[in-house]
Design brief:
TIM Barrel, 11 strands, alpha/beta, about 375 residues, 8-stranded parallel barrel
């Protein structure tokens, strides 16, 4: 099997974009008629402009598939920011090195205090997040952080700088369950314009990260693109192609896809590609029709009204009451350290649980435990 970087090179961006935009209503009809046997060409049709007139039909089938596969449950998780120190310059991120902000990395005592606060909110699933600063928040720091929070939580994921295979293996031994690593954009030249300094500027190294994770034996890999950097339809196609590639090669691994849209942050650029709420619904449904097993996540970047409607159509996990600055839950609740981006849905975890319950859904706080692993 070709490595994914070579696979991208064999599928030029402009050709893929043209193919998507040239899909017809007949192509969409064919894709919808295939049921569970849809392929990547069908996904193209489902994310194309031609499919916008089929949204109600797509949403109905997406909801039915989700109910059949996952039931009326939504997994709840909380982002746990450990540090905003970063060695990269990225045009869209509040943590970027060029932003003159107060930098904060939590100490052991602060990590424990923050863990206690998040636990008190009811969470058992956490996502540890840092900027990309190997010297400050490298493998040893992450290993120690996992050890500190493991007594509090049943499930630990990370969203940090890409690591080597052997480094992931070390963290997996400590109890790491999942790693989220977003490519941001699959357009190599555009990628370079947004990542001008730091290790993240290496497009090929970043795109190979899920491969290293698969080889390391991680339980779950999270994929996604930052919606707004480039044409969202084309970026989403390459994300789906990446998902398909990894599923075939690492079939024992679980996968998730997230849908981060550019949000306000210090030094942030304006989106090059604007996605409407309706188009985000189309994309979520397209993923569910393409892959009934992939987990789909929506964060507090999105509005309360949008999240109150979209979770029924394909979403399997959501955050609530999120803080995107280090120590935001207890150590620095007054935002003494900068947020990575502004949230939109500010409801508490219990308010989200109440909303889900009133609509016949269950908020799941714990569905996996280290005790079950052999």
């Amino acid at each position: 099997m070709l490595d994914f970087y070579t696979l991208i090179k064999n599928n030029p961006w402009d050709e893929i974009k043209s193919s998507i935009y040239n899909k017809t209503k007949e192509d969409v009809e064919v894709a919808l008629s295939k049921g569970e046997f849809r392929d990547i060409e069908d996904f193209k049709a489902l994310i194309s402009p031609a499919a916008e007139g089929f949204l109600e039909r797509m949403a109905a089938e997406s909801r039915n598939i989700t109910l059949r596969r996952f039931g009326k449950v939504v997994q709840m998780y909380a982002p746990f920011y450990l540090s905003n120190e970063c060695q990269n310059i990225c045009t869209y991120c509040g943590f970027s090195l060029h932003n003159k902000i107060k930098r904060t990395t939590l100490t052991d005592a602060q990590i424990i205090r923050e863990a206690e606060a998040i636990k008190a909110l009811g969470y058992d699933h956490i996502l540890l997040v840092t900027g990309e600063a190997n010297k400050t928040v490298g493998v040893e720091y992450l290993q120690n952080a996992i050890r500190l929070v493991k007594p509090f939580f049943a499930n630990i994921s990370i969203e940090v700088q890409p690591l080597e295979q052997n480094e992931y293996e070390v963290l997996i031994e400590e109890g790491l369950y999942a790693v989220l690593v977003y490519q941001e954009t699959y357009h190599e030249e555009e990628y370079k314009t947004h990542h001008t300094k730091g290790k993240k500027s290496n497009f090929e190294y970043r795109i190979d990260t899920p491969e290293r994770l698969g080889k390391a034996g991680i339980h779950k890999i999270g994929l996604g693109c930052l919606i707004g950097l480039e044409d969202w339809r084309t970026d989403s196609f390459f994300t789906a192609m990446h998902l398909q590639y990894l599923e075939k090669k690492y079939w024992q691994t679980k996968f998730s896809v997230s849908f981060p849209r550019l949000r306000p942050a210090q030094g942030l650029l304006e989106p090059k590609s604007v996605m409407t709420d309706k188009q985000l619904v189309q994309l979520i449904c397209a993923y569910r029709l393409f892959n009934e097993n992939v987990e789909l996540s929506i964060s507090t970047r999105e509005s309360a009204s949008f999240r109150d409607h979209v979770y029924k159509l394909g979403i399997t996990s959501m955050s609530a009451g999120s803080k995107t600055n280090p120590g935001g839950y207890a150590v620095f609740p007054e935002k003494e350290s900068l947020e990575q981006f502004e949230i939109d849905d500010s409801r508490s975890p219990r308010e989200m649980e109440k909303m889900l319950h009133e609509n016949g859904y269950e908020a799941v706080w714990k569905d996996w435990d280290q005790m079950l692993m052999v």
